[in-house]
Amino acid sequence: MGTSLLIKDDRHDGARSLQRSDHLAALATQSLIAEAELTPKAGLVDRRGRGAHNDLSLKVMTKSATALEPYFAAMAARSVAKDLSKDLRAELAEIGRDAEWAMYNVTQGSNSHKGAIWILGLLVAAAARGHGQNARAIAAVAGAIARLPDRAQPELITHGEVVRIRYGVAGARAEASSNFRHVTKFALPTLRDRRARKFPEEICRLDALLSLMAELDDTCVLYRGGVEALEVVKSGARAVLLAGGYGSANGRQQMRKLDRELIRRHLSPGGSADLLAATIFLDTVERRQNEVCKDRSEREARDGAA
Fold it and tell me: Which backbone phi and psi does 247 adopt, to 5 degrees?
């Protein structure tokens, strides 16, 4: 009888782990969609249109995020079953590469979420390991996984590798290895500050995005426009925040100015967008929410259309 009860308990634990993995994957996908829908974002795809992109749209971003959900679930499930080791790192990377193929398939070759697969894949895997709900603790476990070597070598030189060689900026890999420093130092504190000041949720998230844009050496921007373009993004985001953030009239004016400039220059702060999705995911997990909150007021909708 003792053995049969043990088997029953093991099966119960396994089912619970799978349920947890599926839930985390759903939150990761919802976070990507919430980031894409957030409006108005300077230079990025949102409800208004394509931003500085020619090959992406809100519909494409949503399809891409949805296609990634089973791969996030697989990463979470694999992380629960494995020790923190090179083997786990290699298996997560393999699933991540499969996720990239799925992304390219649904987007007809467009890179909608390559960086996000790496970032959210690590965070989902870390959250699944059960080291508590604290955002910093999850980010630290994700960083530990990221710092493990991946046995597989990339077959192609990616945009991120070009930027690393040309500018000495390592992008998403360095961010993950630093325990997501920009997320925990800038984005999450900004999100919480605005929320404590009773701003609508989308304004909280817009200012969190701006805090990332103001500080991050965004490899997407560097690849498209170099150091000068990066300074345009950073200084423009700082100007919005110094004007009072998107919750102020002056801040909204500065945001419109920045948006026009980034579109004119064909600049898209995609690295910051990926980290905003990570911020939304970690915030949702830490607050023990069943789904990513959607909170769009009529005033925000009018501002986004302006």
Answer: -80, -5
Q: How many helices (H) and strands (E) does the chain have?
A: 14, 0
Measured CA to CA in angstroms, residue 76 lies from 17, 100, 139, 184 at distances of 9, 17, 14, 21
CB 207 within 8 A of CB 233: no
Calculate helix-pair angle for 270-286, 135-146, nearest 10 degrees: 130
DSSP symbol at 245? -
Residue spans of the domains in the chain: they are 16-148+160-288
DSSP SS3 for 52? coil
User: Can you tell me which residue has the tokens 């905003």?
Assistant: 276
Query: Does the global pTM surpass 0.85?
Result: yes
Give the C-alpha separation, 264 to 276, whole Å.
23
Q: Which CATH architecture has domain 16-148+160-288?
A: Orthogonal Bundle (1.10)
**Pairwise CA distance, residues 293 & 195, whole Å:** 13
Query: Tens digit of pLDDT per residue, the chain (306 long)?
Result: 443 433 344 455 566 777 899 999 999 999 999 999 999 999 999 999 999 998 899 999 999 999 999 999 999 999 998 899 999 999 999 999 999 999 999 999 999 999 999 999 999 999 999 766 899 999 999 999 999 987 655 555 566 667 766 766 777 888 999 999 999 999 999 999 999 999 999 999 999 999 999 999 999 999 889 999 999 999 999 999 999 999 999 999 999 999 999 999 999 999 999 999 999 999 999 999 999 987 554 344 444 444
